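Record format v2
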Amino acid sequence: MTVVKSTISDSARQITGDALQSTLVDLLGLSLIGKQAHWNIVGPRFRSIHLQLDEVVASAREFADTVAERAAALGVSPDGRPETIASAFTLPAPKEGWVRDSDVVGVMVESLEAAIARLRERIEATDKPDPVTQDLLISITAELEKQRWMFAAENVARES
Amino acid sequence: MTVVKSTISDSARQITGDALQSTLVDLLGLSLIGKQAHWNIVGPRFRSIHLQLDEVVASAREFADTVAERAAALGVSPDGRPETIASAFTLPAPKEGWVRDSDVVGVMVESLEAAIARLRERIEATDKPDPVTQDLLISITAELEKQRWMFAAENVARES
Amino acid sequence: MTVVKSTISDSARQITGDALQSTLVDLLGLSLIGKQAHWNIVGPRFRSIHLQLDEVVASAREFADTVAERAAALGVSPDGRPETIASAFTLPAPKEGWVRDSDVVGVMVESLEAAIARLRERIEATDKPDPVTQDLLISITAELEKQRWMFAAENVARES
Amino acid sequence: MTVVKSTISDSARQITGDALQSTLVDLLGLSLIGKQAHWNIVGPRFRSIHLQLDEVVASAREFADTVAERAAALGVSPDGRPETIASAFTLPAPKEGWVRDSDVVGVMVESLEAAIARLRERIEATDKPDPVTQDLLISITAELEKQRWMFAAENVARES
Amino acid sequence: MTVVKSTISDSARQITGDALQSTLVDLLGLSLIGKQAHWNIVGPRFRSIHLQLDEVVASAREFADTVAERAAALGVSPDGRPETIASAFTLPAPKEGWVRDSDVVGVMVESLEAAIARLRERIEATDKPDPVTQDLLISITAELEKQRWMFAAENVARES
Amino acid sequence: MTVVKSTISDSARQITGDALQSTLVDLLGLSLIGKQAHWNIVGPRFRSIHLQLDEVVASAREFADTVAERAAALGVSPDGRPETIASAFTLPAPKEGWVRDSDVVGVMVESLEAAIARLRERIEATDKPDPVTQDLLISITAELEKQRWMFAAENVARES
Amino acid sequence: MTVVKSTISDSARQITGDALQSTLVDLLGLSLIGKQAHWNIVGPRFRSIHLQLDEVVASAREFADTVAERAAALGVSPDGRPETIASAFTLPAPKEGWVRDSDVVGVMVESLEAAIARLRERIEATDKPDPVTQDLLISITAELEKQRWMFAAENVARES
Amino acid sequence: MTVVKSTISDSARQITGDALQSTLVDLLGLSLIGKQAHWNIVGPRFRSIHLQLDEVVASAREFADTVAERAAALGVSPDGRPETIASAFTLPAPKEGWVRDSDVVGVMVESLEAAIARLRERIEATDKPDPVTQDLLISITAELEKQRWMFAAENVARES
Amino acid sequence: MTVVKSTISDSARQITGDALQSTLVDLLGLSLIGKQAHWNIVGPRFRSIHLQLDEVVASAREFADTVAERAAALGVSPDGRPETIASAFTLPAPKEGWVRDSDVVGVMVESLEAAIARLRERIEATDKPDPVTQDLLISITAELEKQRWMFAAENVARES
Amino acid sequence: MTVVKSTISDSARQITGDALQSTLVDLLGLSLIGKQAHWNIVGPRFRSIHLQLDEVVASAREFADTVAERAAALGVSPDGRPETIASAFTLPAPKEGWVRDSDVVGVMVESLEAAIARLRERIEATDKPDPVTQDLLISITAELEKQRWMFAAENVARES
Amino acid sequence: MTVVKSTISDSARQITGDALQSTLVDLLGLSLIGKQAHWNIVGPRFRSIHLQLDEVVASAREFADTVAERAAALGVSPDGRPETIASAFTLPAPKEGWVRDSDVVGVMVESLEAAIARLRERIEATDKPDPVTQDLLISITAELEKQRWMFAAENVARES
Amino acid sequence: MTVVKSTISDSARQITGDALQSTLVDLLGLSLIGKQAHWNIVGPRFRSIHLQLDEVVASAREFADTVAERAAALGVSPDGRPETIASAFTLPAPKEGWVRDSDVVGVMVESLEAAIARLRERIEATDKPDPVTQDLLISITAELEKQRWMFAAENVARES
């Protein structure tokens, strides 16, 4: 059932729709693993990272909503059901149970870096098909790169 | 690694921990399918139900956070990772793709009713082991029963 | 016409529904007589009690709404029509016309005490049938007992 | 006991006091039946009308307070006790139990129209005795006519 | 220097200008004596009346500003200089030094009653010349009559 | 299609509807030319007048909404379409292109004066047919006269 | 009179200025027809669409302001006078008088689709001449496409 | 009637009380002449100075309240009655009627300079008797000197 | 002097009163030692724990107020005087002088654990005598257990 | 352990530290007895004084925090532990149990007067050693003297 | 020490890092000279331009923060130390001492024009290396061009 | 050009002006190096110190504004241009590039201590010439000493 017409061509919609759907999965996954870490972190930086993770979650949730509604606006039904996220989400994530603060910071840096690499590919892919979607992906990248820097800077002294 | 000591006995912690973990999965699942419906609903009641679903999602997210932190407070590591939700979430959910508004209302009534039935069992189970957790489960039930009524009342006229 | 299904058994619904309906009448009645006193009070404590009465009214209105929606959530149609309140409301109330401030305080103490006694019976009655409703009645009692204390403390010096 | 002197003549006070007292009853009655409908409405427009009714209730409560305090300001004791409303309120109201959404809209149109017709008579009656009270009645009429239009517009398509 | 043209006739401007100028003096005077009482009141109702007086002052200041700008809008230069208020203000006022709370209440009732009587004359006088100004005077009267009632109700029990 | 019944007689509705429709056009026109001046003004008073114009626009938009909804409330369909405004709007307006600040102030004084003169006629015309509408027109006039004064006072020194 | 110098070349300014001026007309037109529909809509979805239209109007007004000020910033005098809109606005619009809710939704979908198509051409045209303006047009397109989707989703069930 | 005891010696109270009483008169007078200028100013800087004067008035009113309550706190009854201000206020003030903007700025500079000179004397006088009052006078001086600078800077270009 | 009557039986009041009085002492004590640690903490986690302690203090103060007013509402005079707290407070507390951050975290975990153990006994004790008080004690326990978890999680890595 | 260096000389630190420590005890003590009175007051002025006491408590708490952090900033460890307050607090305080409103007012006047006398000595003592601390003590004195006046004014009529 | 890894290639990082560093210097410099002008401006437009300059400063500060954090996010250490700004800032700036209002406006136009020209070059330079940074530079340019227009429009009438 | 007259003598103005100008440089410098550290900090306390530095920057910016406007108010033109800060700022500052968290804390302690020592000299110097300026310098010292303590307490454990 194609109920909502698109304002762009079929081929543009194909590329843009794929970019948005995989971004949606990454963001919903990030919001879930961000909360998982928020609840299971232990260590002397507990409070500081506990609060920082909630900022990642808030950003991920808000962008997920914008991305899904952007897909709908282009006539592409977004899919954010539990089973879809579970099978399609491939970013690094914290393991089960309590997690030490330095490990949380480490896994967040890795997960955000992987998400950013995938976003930069989609920015390139959507340049011609839909500059409106590209602009949204650019905004998400800016935010995730800022979050990545803050975790990375936090982890510098670990080895010293 | 049992890093956070519990303030209740081991057996009480077992029962309470199970109740909280399964409630966490139900709430995270509800928040995901609520958003899925929020994005994919079509039909003359689009705007009205689209907004109502966001209230369900907001409640589910907030209660999920409280429930997970309650588990942690009792020394039980909460698990809200994508794969956990996907495998443990069993409530009725909207199918893939666009969904007609009356179908959305119908599935929300069913999903909330199933969640409520499970919560009422946990309220009974936690009465002795931990009245503090029981009180939290009572609050969640009150909110979900209110949401269920509003969807149910909305759907009455469907048959008429 | 039983349009909204209940999430509890028929017998539990009967007891809980009665408790909620009579609480609804008491609260709507309190909100009306609280306003009546708010408008008709005279005496040197006019401003102080005039403002305090509006807090009683605000609490009564907010709880009345929650109580009525709780009834609806259980599949029980709440009844707050003028004629219902007039015939079912039995708490002490201010007489017609202007009322002296000390008399207002006195009648509010009596009216709240009567309401509290009735609520305590309903708390006991709903313990088994529906702990969710019981929890709501407990919250209402806590608020009304606080209000009663403040009027009672205000009236102590009357005799001295 | 005439405890508060009036700033207008006895005859003016008589006419104005009657106009305010009957307006008070209409507004308190509207606030009660608005809530009754708010709780008992069922049908596909449930959420939309449920929210709209709360705006009617909020307006009715706020104006009732202003009207009663206006009466007091003129030395007329306002009467908003349950039994007074029950015996003096004559506007159309929803019947007992659950009410279909289209019926709710219909009865609100009728009730508001009746209230407006009565207000327009009082606007005329108070023109000479007290332009200050007349100005208040004009404000109330403006608000109720706006509410009436919105329910009426909502009901147009019922027959089509 | 008549620098701002009027939108009404010369004769209408004369009557309306006089009504506004004398209202301005009454309101500025009320704001000054309200503060005087606010600072000098003593007695067991100190806090209650101290706060109530600030509401009179706030109303008087806000209406004074509206009245003066209304005069300017009609091309009439408003005069609120200290010497003008001192010579033109004729309402009852608290005497020098500390004032007992019951005396404060008494003088506020008298002063507001005098202000109201003068406003009612101006409402009549401006009916034809400028209904826009009349509407403003009606609003001021409504507020001052409400304030008068509250002080009057506060003073009822003084003799009992 | 007369879909919304009126609460006033046909003849009253005719007069009142005409007054509201022409006021609507004046206000929508004012909001458009206010913005036009807001964007095109140049000169040393740029910032000061640029900000003042936005207050005119905000008032005009808000009153336009109230006026149109008042018409609808009386069963009169309001007409604010571009072509209607273009053909019916007759107040003085800024010319095309950049406009010097003193010229902007001048044209605003003229345009507001013309709007006020037309409103005063409608206040008189609606006195008997509908005092509720008359009261709204009085409020609009008060605001526009205040705006006119502020532009007029601003322009006084131009000649000196 | 070219009073404000441009920061881009003459040819770039020509293209960008044209894009901004025609976008301004579309947005001002949308804000007017959005309000027209807001006031004249009738039918069972009255309240829901009535509120949604105000969100379109708010977006259109805010973007119109940004677009006009962007033109001015480039030394191009923006033209938003009534006669300019009337003659240059070509998007589908609601007809005169009351409009059924489903027709309102239909015309909004069509009008937004036409506006979007025109915006996408301007995004392409301004890519080289002025990426700053292009970025603004991209933001407007994102918002209008979101609005279009919501109306389109609302209208799906019309045929079923 | 000396009803409120002082926390400082009689001689200290005498000096401090005089300083506070004369500061009170200066501030109340400034608030009145600030408003007088706010209403009567004309000229191309109307809006800019009209707004700035309201900041002077707001400061003067707030400090007047603090100063009067400080006097009361020291057992000195403050006197802010109209006749007291009229006879004791000696600062330069705008003349009757409309006042040109440059003249308003000029008189404000002079009036604030005179007020500051008097405050600096009182700062010295209260140094020993009451450092708490001195601290308050220092705060007032800081604010009035800031206001004076802004008017003075505004007037520099008058001669050029 | 038993000035405020109780709404529960004498024996119930005895048990409940004792539970509330000892809870009051624990909470006031916690608020004081929380501030003591807030001011005296030193070490690399200074800022993080300094802020967290203020959240403990805020919770303790707010619950202390509710607990004391609950006692008063039951006719039991609450006792929170300095000497009462000093003699009755028995929870672990920081020693005099500056305290290292890890020691602060350690003592807060111990002190909160002791407070929780005592609260859980009171929850059991008040179950029959007064479910309203029990509900309040449950809320306090939930909050203190959450605070305890956050300090405990923060301290995990100390040994590693 | 002297962990935080001071920015002033040792002797200055000794005097200033003593002044701050004893002020801290007075303020924490005032906050505790203020709450004690807030909960235990009875009599016709219950509500008025109950609210006023909370303002004293809020001021005392906020200043206690500033005073303790000022001590820490000077390298002096502040001591606000329960046993310290109990042994060092010497101001008049309400007796155990319910207290009549006039007695509450009386004891607050006495307690504040004693606190003020001690503060004035410390203002003198810190003049040379640390004008920054002196400035803080001056602010506290201003606030407490204002509070004292309000209680004193409230109690005037007690004897009459 | 390269402590934060980059998410883009070395060559891209070189170009983007240079663009961000020089933009940072321009914005910090603008914030300093904007404040310098804010404090030193004299003339009849003092208040109007004084306020406008604070908006430039607020924008410059906020964008400087975003630009510096963007550099850090790309692994480039931003340099905003006083000596760096002093040596690298090359935009036109106000001279030492008091500055006439028209001169302030003139220098702000020039300084903003120079900053814009430099930004437009960087927008082009970063197009390929990093579209995320380019998007940020576009936003800054939009804001500075708007500010430039407002100063330029303000200065038009200087020559006339 | 001495355009703004002073309210104090020439010699007093000389001393006070110097004190204000050097304080301005210190505060502007602190705001720049605070931001520099905010952006370049790395290590496990990144987030905690990153946030704390922004509080220093906010304080420094706000006080810098007050100090500069105080200078202007005394007729002294403040100088905050980049080159002035670069040449006159002498407080310790972070070196170029990324900086470890413990080094950031260390340099902030040193820099604030140096600033405080200089402020204490100026407090003494301005005592006679201008107590109003002295009061401002006292407020700044209080804030910087509080900031210094928090960094110093944070760094205590570094050696342990």
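Chain A touches chain I at residues 41-48, 50, 98, 100-101 (CB under 8 Å).
The first strand of chain A starts at residue 41 and ends at 42.
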